[in-house]
Hints:
Blueprint: E1 2-11, H1 15-24, E2 31-33, H2 40-46, E3 60-68, H3 73-87, E4 98-104, E5 119-122, E6 125-129, E7 142-146, H4 158-170, E8 176-180, H5 186-193, E9 198-203, H6 206-218, E10 226-230, H7 237-243, E11 248-254, H8 257-263, E12 271-283, H9 287-296, E13 300-307, E14 310-316
Parallel strand pairs: 6-7, 8-9, 8-11, 9-10, 11-12
Antiparallel strand pairs: 1-3, 1-4, 2-3, 5-6, 12-14, 13-14
Amino acid sequence: MKWVKLTLKTVTDAVELISDMLIELGIEGIEIKDNVPITEREKKELFIDILPELDTNNKEAFISFYLNEQDNTDEVIHSVKEGLKELSQFVDTGSGDIEISVTEDTDWINNWKAYFKPFRLEDNIVIKPTWEELTDKKEGDIVIELDPGTAFGTGAHETTKLCILALKKYLTPDMEVLDVGSGSGILSIIASKLGAKKVLGTDIDPHAVEASRENVEVNKISEDKVTFFSGDIISDDVLKETVGFQKYDIAVANILADIIIPLSGKIGVHLKPGGLFISSGIINTKKEQVLSAVIANGFEVIAVEEMGDWVSVIAKK
């Protein structure tokens, strides 16, 4: 099915009023492109560490929305123009120009799968998408079947690789592992296949937890060995009780510096004495902030590993 995309050129100050007007006209799925920086709160909620530089002096804004082929495009444009005319009495609405284009109805969520192929993450760890065939399996390979869905974590990113290398180095059989911010479940699955006695993963996104559970099942790992719970381990007291205290040999967190910093003050209660806290997802410009927080919260830093622009900190309770 084809869709008609309408893009309205306006100015930043008018975006909210125009968006409300479009909603009143029955238009849904509004997309806004502007140069307004997100707030610190939004940054934390979206788990964004690096943001593009914006020209905040540029007040242009674009509002896009879609109509299907059966909609009367001319009629909708007329209604939008009338709405702009009325709003212009109260606020500068910019040029009000509307650009029309046509786009195919594609499966945007799944299109990326065409580019996710099996790859050797480490000398003996292979990540294989569930929908792909593996043609070069070697003796001794640990194969991870993975369908991330909408969750973060295919293993290709430097931050995930740093965590996996640390798990290979420090994890020994019969250890218990806590995976905070489990995403697709990749670190939990690898920890289990490396010999962990039990792994518990948490993620604030229920969809990620669902994806993790499905990936564990695909990898033929029993639920009693790897389990997942949804919630924020920093603030959710019920989840903290569920996770348990002073019972994990390793806690791994591949998140972001701004989350690892407060997490370092909370994670220690879940670790055994001498337990390790492996953290990654740290952009190198925030390395010192993380190190200071980890040390201030009673950990001894035993290693700092770097890959590209990313840092992993391994610390002992």
